[in-house]
Known about the structure:
Chain A is 30% helix and 0% strand. By secondary structure, chain A is an all-alpha fold. The longest helix of chain A has 31 residues, at 7-37. The radius of gyration of chain A is 22 Å and the shape is elongated. In chain B, helix 7 (146-167) packs parallel to helix 9 and helix 10 runs parallel beside helix 13 (275-296). The A-B interface holds A 1-5, 9-10, 12-13, 16-17, 19-21, 23-25, 27-28, 30-32, 34-35, 81, 83-86, 90, 96-101 and B 71, 74-75, 78-79, 82, 86, 89-90, 94, 97, 104, 108, 111-124, 128, 131, 135, 138-139, 142-145, 166.
Amino acid sequence: MFTRSTPSHRLLVRLLVAAQVLYVLGxxxxxxxxxxxxxxxxxxxxxxxxxxxxxxxxxxxRYTAAEAPLTGGAxxxxxxxxxxxxxxxxxxxxxxxxxACTPRS
Amino acid sequence: xxxxxxxxxxxxxxxxxxxxxxxxxxxxxRYPPEAVQAVGLLPLLGSILVGLSALSVVAANWQxxxxxxxxxxxxxxxxxxxAGGEYFLRRGNRRLGYGLVGLGLVMFGVSxxxxxxxxxxxxxxxxxxxxxxxxxxxxxxxxxxxxxxxLPIVIGAAVQTYCTQALGLFSYATIGLxxxxxxxxxxxxxxxxxxxxxxxxxxxxxxLWVALSHSKITWFFIPAMLVYAAGDWHRNxxxxxxxxxxxxxxxxxxxxxxxxxxxxxxxxxxxxxxxLAYLGALAALLALSVAGKRQQGxxxxxxxxxxxxxxxxxxxxxxxxxxTLVVLYAHAGSVLARxxxxxxxxxxxxxxxxxxxxxMVAYFKLTWAFLDKSxxxxxxxxxxxSLSWYLRRRNAQRLAAGVAxxxxxxPAPSSSSANGPAH
Lengths: 105, 423
């Protein structure tokens, strides 16, 4: 169990670390590009129900677009599932690494 | 053997004439008191505290920092961890060096998650985190360190958990990377701990797949026994057994559950996959396993497969429970028989425990309804006591006989008298 500290090994380590830095920069670039070149979709929220504050420390935001009409709604198509920016803040209940702002419907 | 043990026991050795007083002092000098080591931990604790304070300062002000500063902080800590790791590895401080390299790998995952959060990127598949697993597997090939071999397995399990729970997708790439990447590394550098963690990680991912796809839970045993069969082909026996441990434990718990709850047809109905497909896959794995066992000369462990007998195809009810009990007894008996042949004390203990568990399950299963409660516990206790007495006696005899045959003629009397109480 010895570290092979040969030049080629060191080069491989450096390449791998450089690839990681580039990848993180790529994620940042993708995010920047989405903001700069992406299509802005403004989502209107429904009036907030403040009664929930009596029981919880947060309010639930609902988007009007989330409630599809029963008839004559536009069909969902896969391109709607692309990354997007949202002008309205993400729902405060979101805890996932990617805040779920849903552009799907 | 600890220093304390040496200090308390060695005066008796001197009085018995095993060692002289001078030898005792040399032995004590060879193992210095551990107070020195405890003091050596202080810098580590101090640096952990300093690190935590820095972390909490950053975390508290994270939202108010400008985007570029946040990105810069992430990348700087990533680079610092790797550079520090390389520095300490070159200085020869391997533990700290590998620790820092591992920290760098963790920082990479944290950077991916926080950067995508920074720009409010929405992930609809696992591709963002897959890079983490890829880098982890590659790093484990670059360094010959056990913790760095464990990290990609754990990261793979975590990524798969996130993917199935949050995104509702199963990432075949992740399980493939762990199985082939970490698996091949283990194959080249066998290690018992890595083997166990690898098997547990793969079984965890297989269980997530079963849960996500709403398959019959018995399908879980196809990937599990694939892991088991892979162990059969490996030359290194301890490492192979460590890999086979988790699948066997899973199969045993399943058989135990079948014996306990198999009576209700509703439970058994949850377990029945299509006969031809399931039995075909299982038979193929059995053939693979038998071929491996034959090649490595380990056909004695073939009764492990008894646990996989698909008894759940029987109609539910008492016949199923009894058939499973028979299988449990046969398995425990096979472990005991193998242990008696090889004379391994641990195998003997394991076989005894399995036998006692099977007996307890059978007893609970078959007599709870018929006996008065107090009589039930009384007979059960007496049964267990007599069983333990009998098995202990047998084990002692067998081990004594094993020692006598392996050691040879000269020291045999002392060894048999050492194990004497059985007679």
